[in-house]
Amino acid sequence: MRRHELSDREWAVLRSILAEHCKRQGGGSDSNRLFINAVLWRIRTGVPWRDLPERLGKWNSLAKRFARWAEKKV
Q1: What local confidence, expressed as pLDDT, does residue 71 receive?
Q2: Is the pLDDT of residue 36 over 90?
Q3: pTM
Q4: CA 41 – CA 5 distance, rounded (Å)
Q5: Range 40-48 contact pairs with CB under 8 angstroms and sequence separation of 24 or more
Q6: Cβ within 8 Å of residue 73, ≥6 positions away
Q7: Cα separations (Å) of 62 from 9, 49, 59, 66, 71?
Q8: pLDDT at site 68
Q9: pLDDT at residue 13 greater than cutoff 80
Q10: Higher-confidence residue: 2 or 32?
Q11: What is the pLDDT of residue 46?
């Protein structure tokens, strides 16, 4: 586990909460975990979306997804 990422224990709790609120098409649980890790990385480091590590996903897709979740108050 990296410093800015969820532990397996943290993810187990959050996954059950998200399952109730996020009925996504495709992607699924692994995609949600990667997305949450990207959001945590951004919050903890203060970097703009463009500067997130590529291993977390495409920055523009992450930013759009964050905006959708924020709009839906996830």
Answers
A1: 93
A2: yes
A3: 0.82
A4: 7
A5: 40/4, 40/5, 40/6, 41/4, 41/5, 44/4, 45/4
A6: none
A7: 23, 8, 5, 6, 14
A8: 92
A9: yes
A10: 32
A11: 96
Amino acid letter at 47?
Answer: V
Cα 7 to Cα 2, 27, 33, 69, distances in angstroms:
9, 20, 10, 22
C-alpha dist (Å) from residue 53 to 4, 15, 37, 41, 71:
11, 23, 11, 9, 25
**How far apart are alpha carbons 74 and 68 in whole angstroms?**
9
On the question of pLDDT at 28 being above 60, the answer is yes
Query: Locate tokens 């108050």: which residue?
Result: 73
Provide DSSP, 4-59: TS--HHHHHHHHHHHHHH---SSSHHHHHHHHHHHHHHHHHH---GGGS-GGG--H
